[in-house]
Write a structure and sequence with these properties.
Shape: globular
Strand order of the largest sheet: 1-24-23-22
Strand content: 35-45%
Helix content: 10-25%
Distance between the termini: 89 Å
Radius of gyration: 32 Å
CATH architecture of the largest domain: 6 Propeller
Order of helices and strands: HEEEEEEEEEEEEEEEEEEEEEHEEE
Number of strands: 24
CATH class of the largest domain: Mainly Beta
Length: 332
């Protein structure tokens, strides 16, 4: 038949096309399987790499510094610690009557003596670099220029005893808050040292009592008070209205007087002397961690004497019995 060869050729063409299609399909499947194997292998390798680099601990130890002695740059009976806006560290010493300034590594930068500082209890630095130190025997807060010259003395109208504790805090606006723990009263001063208010802290609208031991201020003017026996930190507005409270869940259930507030969180030391508690700025619990490995055995008596937080995200722990400062990196 005249058309038969064309029919045969047409059938052959269809057969060739069909075989080619099957080969292409098999090749495509093989390529997909190979890609899946390679991708799976890479993901598995990446997972192994990630697993081999775990996240750093939320608080990691850096090191320590401090030299025992009663001279400039030495620590005799250090009582309180603070950090300024650029990370410099300040310590007041009851043994030598010195106020010391160090860099973050502990290199002495400035030491000045004030004979009136027989029993310094609290130190803070304002945004301009002025240094505030409370003194129990005169129920005062002394204010010094950044170079150590005395500028002013804020005298409280209260009478302290040996069991009293005076604590000072200054916010970024220069408002000064001085807590007299024995009187259980906070005195609020303007940056020009005019008393504007004194108030007795209450924990809620019902007026439940607070036995505050230490005061701290946030940059926005919020006031924080530490009630150690109740194991809590309380937040107030700058004029004394209660906002919320943070409870210490781990440790002994009580807090020491070591306490610091910073933009990254609120930190307090347990009464057991080695447990650190931290909360986020909005009051949520962040951690409860044992610092005993660096401080010494857990049975050591209250080695955490005071706390400070620098803008470098370093926690500074004053260990007064050993005349030293321990540094920790805060990784949150």
């Amino acid at each position: 038949m005249p058309g038969a060869p064309w029919v045969a050729r047409d059938g052959l063409a269809r057969e060739i096309a069909s075989r080619a299609a099957r080969e292409i399909s098999l090749a495509a499947i093989a390529a997909v399987l190979a890609l899946a194997w390679v991708t799976g292998g890479c993901s598995h390798s990446e997972a192994k790499v990630e697993a081999s680099h775990p996240a750093p601990p939320v608080v990691s130890y850096i090191g320590r510094w401090g030299k025992k002695g009663d001279g400039p740059g030495e620590l005799d009976r250090p009582t309180c610690i603070a950090a300024d806006s650029v990370g410099k560290v300040y310590i007041a010493d009851a043994g030598s009557h010195f106020v010391h300034k160090f860099d973050t590594d502990g290199t002495p930068l400035l030491s000045f003596q004030e004979n009136a500082l027989k029993n310094p209890q609290s130190i803070t630095i304002d945004s301009g670099g002025a240094i505030y130190v409370t003194e129990l025997s005169s129920t005062s807060a002394f204010v010094f220029f950044p170079n150590g010259d005395r500028y002013h003395q804020v005298k409280l109208k209260t009478h302290a005893n040996n069991e009293d504790l005076l604590s000072v805090a200054v916010d970024d606006g220069g408002v000064i808050q001085i807590l007299d723990a024995e009187a259980n009263r906070v005195f609020t001063y303007t940056p020009r040292f005019k008393l504007t208010k004194s108030w007795m802290p209450a924990a809620n609208d019902s007026g439940s009592g607070v036995r505050a031991r230490t005061v701290a201020a946030a940059a926005d003017g919020s006031v924080y008070l530490l009630d150690g026996d109740a194991g809590r930190v309380l937040k107030f507005t700058s004029d004394g209205h209660f906002v919320n409270e943070m409870k210490a869940d781990g440790g002994s259930g009580r807090l020491s007087d070591a306490f610091a507030v910073s933009p990254i969180g609120i930190f307090a030391a347990d009464a057991d002397g080695h447990t650190l508690h931290a909360w986020s700025p909005d009051g949520q619990p962040k951690l409860d961690i044992d610092l005993a490995p660096e401080l010494g055995e857990s049975g050591q008596t209250a080695p955490v004497s005071a706390l400070a937080v620098s803008p470098r995200k370093e926690l500074l722990v004053l260990d007064a019995p050993e005349s030293r400062v321990l540094r920790y990196r805060i990784n949150f």
